[in-house]
Amino acid sequence: MKDIASAWSRPDAVDYYATHRHTTDDLYPSEAVFLPRVLFPGIKVLDVGCASGGLFNIMRTMEPAVDYTGIDIAEPSIKIARERYPEARFEVTHGLKIPFDDGAFDLVHCTSVFVNEPRYQELMTEMYRVCNRFLLTDIRLLKDIKGAEELEQSRYRIKYEGKGDTVTVPYAICDADEVVDFLLTLDPTPNALGGTGYFHAVSEMAETPYAEVCMALFLIQKGNDQITQTELDLSGLPIDFAASHRA
Ligand SMILES: C[S@@+](CC[C@H](N)C(=O)[O-])C[C@H]1O[C@@H](n2cnc3c(N)ncnc32)[C@H](O)[C@@H]1O
């Protein structure tokens, strides 16, 4: 398996995200639910795994006064983003070590990254640190798969538009209750945790024994030292969560 930065720096992957996912029509249905709810004039946004900045273009269509910073590990994508959107800020940075202060952003946004990044707990913790209000992110879930051997066999072959060789990265599917348990332990305790999503057939680029996964989008509202209980609303997710998560 190649390192993930060089995998995402390949011309076919860079081209794909430079030509897709940059208008509101390209949003996944669950993204269209939460994104318009959280944007407000002057909002400071950090987009982790921004590729060539397509989500900046989408966000400013919804809210023109968005103060946007995008980070990505793929240098060629950041180069395109800077040329295309000089009014925004872009940095080549890994999401595990974000070079910004605690609470620097009103919204930390991260889509289509956890699908290939198994270290979701470390990455979420770092994103939660730099957010002061909302963390909006997607992750693939299944029920009761903690420790399943099948997970080890799941891989994702990056190859867009039929060009070039394939390169293999992890295909990360997470245990639904474990993810919610983890999100509830973020420090400070989240004020609210909402989820929406749907089951879909796994991508043609995925090699996994599972036929379907739940694409879940979580909106986490950051708490403060006074918050001891998180307001949970996972009713938008088609998953039978553990009883303690059904409130
Ligand atoms: C599948 S693309 C998604 C692009 C965009 N977020 C979207 O939703 O359309 C994944 C992007 O995340 C970047 N990426 C993957 N892992 C990352 C990490 N740990 N830190 C920063 N960027 C990462 C890749 O380089 C790639 O540009």
Q: In CATH terms, what is the fold-level topology? A: Rossmann fold
N-to-C terminal Cα separation, in Å?
Answer: 41 Å
What's the total helix number?
8
Bound compounds, each kind once, are: S-adenosylmethionine
Main β-sheet, in a few words?
9 strands, mixed
Domain unit count:
1
CATH architecture verdict: 3-Layer(aba) Sandwich
Strand content: 25-35%
* N to C succession of SSEs: HHHEHEHEEHEHEEEHEEEE
Mean pLDDT value: 93
Structure report:
There is one protein chain. By secondary structure, this protein is α/β, with parallel strands linked by helices. It has a single domain (4-245), classed as Vaccinia Virus protein VP39 (Rossmann fold), CATH 3.40.50.150. The chain is built from 8 helices and 12 strands. Strands 1, 2, 3, 4, 5, 8, 9, 11 and 12 form a 9-stranded mixed sheet that branches. It has a 3-stranded antiparallel sheet with strand order 7-6-10. Strand 4, helix 6 (120-130) and strand 5 (131-142) form a beta-alpha-beta unit. Helix 2 (11-19) runs parallel beside helix 5 (75-84). The longest helix has 11 residues, at 120-130. It is globular. The model has no long low-confidence stretch (mean pLDDT 93). The structure holds S-adenosylmethionine. S-adenosylmethionine is lined by residues 4, 8, 17, 21, 48-51, 54-55, 71-74, 77, 94-95, 111-113, 117.
